[in-house]
């Protein structure tokens, strides 16, 4: 029975980066579809700050965006970092943005009732796959149980890390979360580039002559749970 220090289940961006930072240990990542093939691929890899009141959650998200941009750049991944203009959706949002303006900690400029952040970029999923290499298997997890070690598909480990997104694993009591599903449309563009990226009702970018439109507004999505 093959031993590992860590077994990571789920090959989205969370599982992939966890495996990358644990690469000095004996680590294996398992996903039934492969690396970055689920919601992480559909989400379009928009790295945009969050606009809102100055809460621990907002600071966590925005610090994460800045760190992610720096991390990808250190690996030579093109972040297409030309900033993002985040616009209010309606009159109610315009009033909210007036309140948010005093709360924002990241550097920004006011443009058209919205906020322009220089820390806004878009990455190509295929380039991330090329630059971040980890040991992984494309395989469905069909058995998990505990003896002296955790046994996963015939492998044993002291540590399991679940990065399964909205999917549940049989016989594993998991945190119940409200699923949020991402969608993306991508196609050839008549525009070679835009001055910066945009976010209003959804995210918009033009990268390598391709228009990318993405959103994560499908809440309580159950289409892929327990498949």
Notable characteristics:
single chain; seven-stranded mixed beta sheet; 227 residues; alpha/beta; 5 helices
How would you describe this protein?
The relative contact order is 0.21. It is built from 5 helices and 15 strands. The chain is of the alpha/beta class. The mean pLDDT is 87. It has a 7-stranded mixed sheet. A 6-stranded mixed sheet has the order 8-2-1-11-10-9, covered by helices on one side. The chain has a two-stranded antiparallel ribbon with strand order 3-7. It is elongated and about 60 Å long.
Count of DSSP H/I helices: 5
Number of strands: 15
Which structural category do the helix and sheet elements fall into? alpha/beta
Low-confidence stretches: none
Helix proportion range: 10-25%
Topology:
Layout: E1 3-9, H1 13-21, E2 27-31, H2 39-42, E3 46-47, H3 56-74, E4 84-86, H4 91-100, E5 109-111, E6 114-117, E7 121-122, H5 125-131, E8 136-138, E9 144-146, E10 150-152, E11 155-162, E12 180-188, E13 197-199, E14 203-207, E15 210-219
Parallel strand pairs: 1-2, 1-11, 2-8, 4-13
Antiparallel strand pairs: 3-7, 4-6, 5-6, 9-10, 10-11, 12-15, 13-14, 14-15
Outline:
Strand 5 and strand 6 form a beta hairpin. Helix content is 22%, strand content 31%.
